[in-house]
Each structure stands twice: as structure tokens, then as C-alpha cells.
Design a protein that fits this description.
heterodimer; A: 445 residues; alpha/beta; Rossmann fold; 3 domains; 6-stranded mixed beta sheet; two-stranded antiparallel sheet; B: 309 residues; 9 strands; 52% helix
Chain lengths: 445, 309
């Protein structure tokens, strides 16, 4: 068995723990390990990290997996002073059990290798729940030849030879340490495999839970998800695309292209123009009726603002203010706190807020602007001023309304949603993170 | 480059204190012939790593700064079209004499085909950084700085250079590297890089160093600064990094600050001198304000002996 086998098995384990490793990368990993050798654990860890991980997240996940997999397996078998003396009885014991020989010779590498081999033989990678720990540990010990070891210990106990009793005691003590090791190993594997799976499930669940129902303890995790999502969107969106536009001659390229024709322009080159990034204007309702999700919406705006240039954001409840500069200057917590302090939890007045927008900023809205409104459209029976939305609709590239309520409750009681929806390019439900991602990614296309 | 330790001490002799993973990455890059993709916050010495490696190996450093709109004519090669124009002029002048005795159009054409086509040849090729790195006689260190600033298309175009160390010029053919250069790419993570590019690279993440490493770095870069003050100022910076700031100070700022303190003959980290020089360390007004507010606490934390400073 080569020294590579444990690495092979570790790569398989790392894949299951959520690190993406292609075959080519595995080959690179072995080439790299051949270079640096296997002598030093930290070097092996650094090397594999450098070759295999592709992002910082990857690297962290990888290092966790490595530590869980290759925790210092041999530490419990550190050489001791009361090593057994050589004798015929001991020779007989080591003949009966290979494991006994390794324990007496303190063949650390052999023991660790045997542990890994045994764990492979019993399919340890399938361990999923904690009740499996004891059975797996027992099976690993069996695969390592614990029965022969017990036989050897029994023989030593019965023997009258000098040092046999001491050797028996020594082996018993080592046997206990070995059992502990096996158990630890199963527990660690359980940690390594099960953790990634649990996180994946949990994240998938959070993406689809209604924002109004998010548990307090999940808020932090949710924040991470929102940030990751906004970042992903910004990346996709930030890619500028080129588009040819006929009409303007590119003199420099034309000359260059036609040098071969003595400068006579056979081939004409036109200037290419980059598409301007569309401008986004976001209006976010932070009134009492949407308070539970307002935090997330603001968080989302904040993150998007970090990533996308030319985003102007407004918050409104009883009136509307521009919050672009607050989002720009303050830290995320201060910004949301400040906005919520100024406007939050008041009853909403869509009419007044929209009127304020129309007076102050309508001229910002032009053919390239996308307007996103996040709100429930409940105006407390005031004048809804749907005409402002209509004006936006006529001026803007797109008007998108994201409503946390379901269409079945649109238009009930004080909801003016249907009147607004009539003047939106898109009016849709947005009550989950996955909804939000879908809506925004559609709009940034 | 015999061992990782040799790389570590070699980089140290070039004035770069490398952590173990950094030295490992450079060692692997040299021996596996793979580019290193260095990521991490601004100012932790990503670009400097390439500089130091070049100094250490005694190779020229060829730098390609990426930006939005960078294309192959600026990164790879360009035809010297001024010269090409002149060449056609000369050709026109001499053509008459050369072809005079050819006898008829067919003969002239026949002879024309016989001439070697110099128009698109290496003589008229103006090498840009990537091609220069491939043509370097004894190898080179190629630094592709801030690859995330270039467009996604440019990445695709880099793939050939990075995996085969060759470029293809349509008119001439493939030009392969004389000696494969050691390639260092840096990224500030302003956008996610493509998987194809990442797959070809070794990935090295440089983070802010811990206090011990940072002290060693400051000791090498600003040797004149007093050891006690060095410990204090590094501890102070380390504490500042734990605050929620718009831009936390990086190593280069620590070094600048140490230089500033040296210049002002400060040998104590008193509240006044810190307040006066804080703008060396922090680049935003609100950050300066935030740190000033917490200055006494930070100084106490950085200075365990002093008690209430």
C-alpha cells in the first residue's frame, strides 16, 4: 500500500464535504505532494490547500475537512518509557497478532495506516448519524484484528516468562487507547461529512422560508445568504458587454487593418461602444406593515449598493427620503438602524411618498432607468397617487413592483395594489430570498 | 529553489517576509510550472510578492496592469504599422525595377510569389508584456496585476498563455516560451473569476499577518524603529483591524505609519502623536473619527504595561 492511498481517500472525503476537486486537480495535488514530500503535516496541508482550493471559502472548508480527517491520529501512541523488553513470550505474542507487534514496536505509521485501511474496509464514509458511532468503532477494531490482539494478550497473561505480565498490561493499556482512537475517528468523520450536508440543507431551507417567518436565531445566517446573493447578482450584472454600433468610424483601427492595402480603406472598422450600465432606482417601504421584512430589504439594498454603481435608493413610510448617502457612508447596522429610526414603524402614506418622489426626483427617471418598488401597496385609505406610478411607467425603462403579499390579498381592505400593478411592467410576489434573487436577476439582465 | 525553506530564506533576502504557505506556493509554482493566483485584501503584499520573487531569482519582472478595456493589442502584441507602411513604400519603389524584366503580368506574379512574405513577420511585431515574458531569454517573473479589473473576455484570452506558455499570432503561428516564466496573478476580488482560469492556477490567499509576522515585516522594512515601539504599534494596528471600518489598515499602511513615527522622532505611542498621524493609517474621514473616539481604549489594549494611558 502506497503512501498515496490515505490522500486518495481524503480527496474523496473532501469532495463529499463540499470542496470541488476535479481529476486534473487531484493529479496536480499528487505532483505537488511528490515535490514537497509527506514528512511535515503542515506542509502537506498548505500544499493541498494551495493546489485544490479555488476560493477563500473553499480553502476554509478544505482545511476543516483536512483537520477532521487527519487529526493527529498517532498522538495517543506516543512512545512510553515502560516499553516491553524483548523475550520469547513477546515474540510469540507478536507472531500471533500483527497488531500486537505494531503496538509493542510502537510502529506509529503502521497503526495509523491500519486505522485508515480498516475505516475504508467498513465504509466509514457512509456514517451519517451519531447512533452509528459505536457500531462503526467496533467494526473498525474488528477489521484491524482486535481478536488476534486479545488472543495475544491472553497468551501473555498465561505465560510464566519474565516480562510477560508487564507486556500484557502494556498491551491492554494500548488496546484501550486504540479503542478510543477508533471512536474519535468515527466521530470526526461524522463531523466532517455530516456538517457540510446539514449546512446545505439549512441554507436551502432559509432561501425558501417566508421572510416574515424567519427565526431570530437564523437572522445572522440569513444575512450571509443575502450578501452572497447580492454579490452574485452584482457580478453577473457588472459584466459589461460590448455591442457594435454602426455609425462612427474608428480611424485608428481602420488604418491599421488596411496597412496591407497601402492605406486604402478596403475594410472599414466601426467604433464599438460599451453598453452603459442601466441605472436602478429602488424605493423601499419600511412602514409598520412590512416591518419584519424591511430589514432584509434594506440589507439587500445596502449590499447591492456596495456592488452596483449608480444605484439610488429611497426609503418611505409616511414620507419619502433618499437613503443613498446613508447606505454609502454608514456601516450596515448603523445604516439600517438610522433609516428605521427616521422612518420605521410609521403608518405608510403611499400618496404622499410618491408625490414627494415626483416633486424631487422624477427627472432622474429616464429611458435607461429601472425603478424597483418594494412594498405592500397598503396606503391606509389615502389617495394612492397611482398617477405617479403611471408617469414613471411612461418615462422609465422598466417599473418593477415586488410585493411581500400574495395576489389573493391584493386589493383587499386598504391595499391599492391592483391600481399600482396596472402601471408596472412587472408586479410580483416577493416573499422569499429565492423570489428576491429571481426578481432582481431578471431586472438586471 | 531546492526546498520550501530555501524559498523562504531567499524571499527574506529580497526583503519579503513570507509566511509558510506563501513560500510553499512559490516553490510549487516554480516546480509544477503553474501560475499563482494571489487573492487577499489590498495592501497585504500581493504585488510585492512578485517583485521579491523576481529579485530573489534574479529575473526581470514584467508587469501587466489590468484595467477595464485592456485588449490583446496592449497585452500581447501589436503590429508596428508605421514600419509596415514604410515597408510597402519601399516595396513599391523597388518593385518596378525588380519586375521590369519579368515579361508580362503572369511572370511578374510568379516572381512576386517567390518573395518571402515579410509583411507579417516577427520583425514587424511589437511585443507587449505577455509576449515579452515568453521571449525572455532566461525566463522572467510575469506579474498580471489585478486581473479582476479586466473583462471576462480577457481571462479567456489568458488561458492559452497560462496553461501552455504560448501565444498564437494568426499571421505567424504559435510562439512558445523560451523558458516558461513564473506567473503571478493578483486579484482584489471585485468580481468572481472564471472557473477555467482558477483551475489552471495555484490558489494563494494572503490575509493580514498575525502580530509576530507583522513585527518581523516592519523590522525588515523599517529597521531603525525601536523594538518596543514596533511591538506597540503593531499591536495597535492589530486592534484597529478588529474594528468595523470602511477600510482597515493593511501592512503597507503599518509600514508607512512606522516610517512616519520614525520621522517624527516618536519613541512612545502617546495619544497626541497617534491622533496626529492617524491619517497615515486610515484613508477615510469617518474611519479616522471612529478610531479617534476609541483611542484611549485602543492604546490601553496595545500597551499592557501602561495601565490607564
Amino acid at each position: 500500500m502506497s503512501v498515496r492511498e490515505p490522500i486518495h481517500r481524503f480527496l474523496a472525503a473532501a469532495r463529499r464535504a463540499g470542496v470541488r476537486i476535479s481529476t486534473a486537480e487531484a493529479i496536480d495535488a499528487f505532483a505537488a505532494l511528490d515535490l514537497v514530500g509527506f514528512a511535515d503535516r503542515t506542509t502537506v496541508r498548505d500544499t493541498l490547500g494551495i493546489v485544490l482550493a479555488k476560493t477563500d471559502d473553499d480553502r476554509r472548508r478544505f482545511e476543516r475537512a483536512f483537520d477532521a480527517y487527519f487529526a493527529a491520529d498517532g498522538s495517543a501512541f506516543a512512545p512510553s518509557e515502560d516499553s516491553a523488553v524483548e523475550s520469547d513470550a513477546i515474540a510469540e505474542a507478536t507472531r500471533r497478532s500483527e497488531l500486537a507487534r505494531m503496538l509493542i514496536d510502537e510502529d506509529l505509521a503502521g497503526i495509523v495506516l491500519a486505522l485508515h485501511r480498516a475505516s475504508e474496509a467498513v465504509d466509514l464514509q457512509h456514517v451519517r448519524i451519531f447512533t452509528q458511532i459505536n457500531p462503526y468503532a467496533r467494526r473498525i477494531l474488528e477489521a484491524m484484528g482486535i481478536a488476534e490482539l486479545d488472543d495475544a494478550i491472553g497468551y501473555l497473561r498465561g505465560s510464566q516468562a519474565t516480562g510477560a505480565a508487564a507486556a500484557a498490561r502494556f498491551l491492554e493499556q494500548r488496546r484501550r487507547a486504540l479503542a478510543e482512537r477508533a471512536r474519535d475517528m468515527v466521530e470526526r468523520r461524522l463531523g466532517a461529512y455530516a456538517e457540510a450536508e446539514r449546512d446545505r440543507l439549512h441554507d436551502a431551507f432559509l432561501r425558501d422560508v417566508r421572510l416574515t417567518n424567519v427565526d431570530r436565531r437564523d437572522v445572522d445566517r440569513m444575512r450571509t445568504l443575502v450578501r452572497a446573493m447580492a454579490r452574485r447578482l452584482a457580478t453577473r450584472y457588472g459584466r459589461r458587454r460590448r455591442r457594435a454600433r454602426r455609425g462612427q468610424l474608428d480611424a485608428r483601427h481602420t488604418i491599421r487593418r488596411n496597412v496591407g492595402h497601402d492605406g486604402i480603406p478596403f475594410t472599414i472598422v466601426w467604433k464599438r461602444r460599451k453598453i452603459e450600465k442601466p441605472r436602478v432606482i429602488a424605493l423601499c417601504d419600511v412602514s409598520g406593515s412590512v416591518a419584519p421584512i424591511a430589514h432584509f430589504l434594506l440589507l439587500f439594498l445596502y449590499t447591492l449598493n456596495e456592488a452596483v454603481s449608480g444605484l439610488r435608493s429611497f426609503a418611505f413610510s409616511s414620507d419619502l427620503i433618499e437613503v443613498s448617502t446613508i447606505l454609502e457612508r454608514e456601516t450596515i447596522d448603523d445604516a439600517t438602524a438610522q433609516i428605521m429610526r427616521t422612518l420605521g414603524f410609521r403608518s405608510s402614506d403611499y400618496g404622499r411618498s410618491l408625490a414627494t418622489f415626483a416633486d424631487g426626483w422624477m427627472d432622474v427617471v429616464d429611458r435607461k432607468t429601472t425603478v424597483v418598488i418594494l412594498g405592500d401597496g397598503r396606503s391606509n385609505y389615502g389617495n394612492p397617487r397611482a398617477d405617479v406610478i403611471k408617469a414613471m411607467y411612461e418615462r422609465a425603462h422598466r417599473v418593477v413592483w415586488l410585493n411581500p403579499e400574495y395576489p389573493s390579498s391584493w386589493g383587499t381592505a386598504d391595499s391599492e395594489m391592483w391600481r399600482y400593478a396596472a402601471h408596472c411592467h412587472v408586479a410580483t410576489v416577493c416573499n422569499r430570498l429565492s423570489d428576491l434573487e429571481r426578481a432582481i436577476s431578471g431586472l438586471l439582465r | 529553489m531546492r526546498s520550501i525553506d530555501a524559498v523562504e530564506s531567499g524571499l527574506a533576502s529580497a526583503g519579503y517576509i513570507a509566511s509558510r504557505p506563501i513560500a510553499t506556493a512559490v516553490y510549487l509554482a516554480e516546480h509544477l510550472g503553474k501560475p499563482i493566483l494571489v487573492e487577499g485584501p489590498a495592501g497585504v503584499g500581493k504585488t510585492d510578492l512578485a517583485n521579491a520573487t523576481a529579485r530573489f531569482l534574479g529575473l526581470p519582472l514584467i508587469r501587466l496592469q489590468c484595467y477595464d478595456g485592456l485588449d490583446e493589442s496592449k497585452a500581447l502584441y501589436e503590429w508596428k504599422y508605421g514600419k509596415q507602411l514604410l515597408y510597402t513604400q519601399i516595396l513599391k519603389d523597388t518593385l518596378g525595377a525588380t519586375l521590369a524584366d519579368a515579361g508580362g503580368l503572369d511572370g511578374a506574379l510568379e516572381r512576386l510569389h517567390g518573395f518571402s512574405d515579410l509583411f507579417f513577420s516577427e520583425q514587424f511585431l511589437e511585443p507587449r508584456p505577455l509576449l515579452r515574458a515568453l521571449q525572455a531569454e532566461n525566463g522572467a517573473v510575469l506579474l498580471i496585476d489585478e486581473i479582476d479589473k479586466a473583462e471576462a473576455e480577457f481571462e479567456a484570452f489568458l488561458l492559452e498563455v497560462l496553461s501552455d506558455f504560448a501565444v498564437t499570432v494568426p499571421e505567424i503561428g504559435t510562439i512558445a516560451a523560451v523558458v516558461p516564466p513564473l506567473v503571478v496573478l493578483t486579484s482584489n476580488d471585485t468580481r468572481d473569476l472564471g472557473d477555467a482560469l482558477k483551475r489552471r492556477c495555484l490558489h494563494l490567499h494572503i490575509d493580514f499577518p498575525d502580530a509576530r509576522l507583522e513585527e518581523r515585516i516592519v523590522a525588515v522594512r523599517v529597521p531603525d524603529v525601536d523594538a518596543r515601539l514596533r511591538t506597540r504599534l503593531v499591536a495597535f494596528v492589530q486592534h484597529v483591524r478588529t474594528l468595523e471600518l470602511k477600510k482597515v489598515p493593511s501592512i503597507s499602511e503599518t509600514i508607512d505609519w512606522a516610517r512616519a513615527l520614525l520621522l517624527l522622532h516618536a519613541n512612545e505611542l502617546g495619544p497626541d502623536i497617534v491622533r496626529d498621524t492617524l491619517n497615515v493609517l486610515l484613508k477615510f474621514e469617518i474611519d479616522v473619527a471612529a478610531v479617534t473616539k476609541q483611542l484611549p481604549a485602543l492604546l490601553r489594549a496595545a500597551d499592557p504595561e501602561a495601565g490607564a494611558a
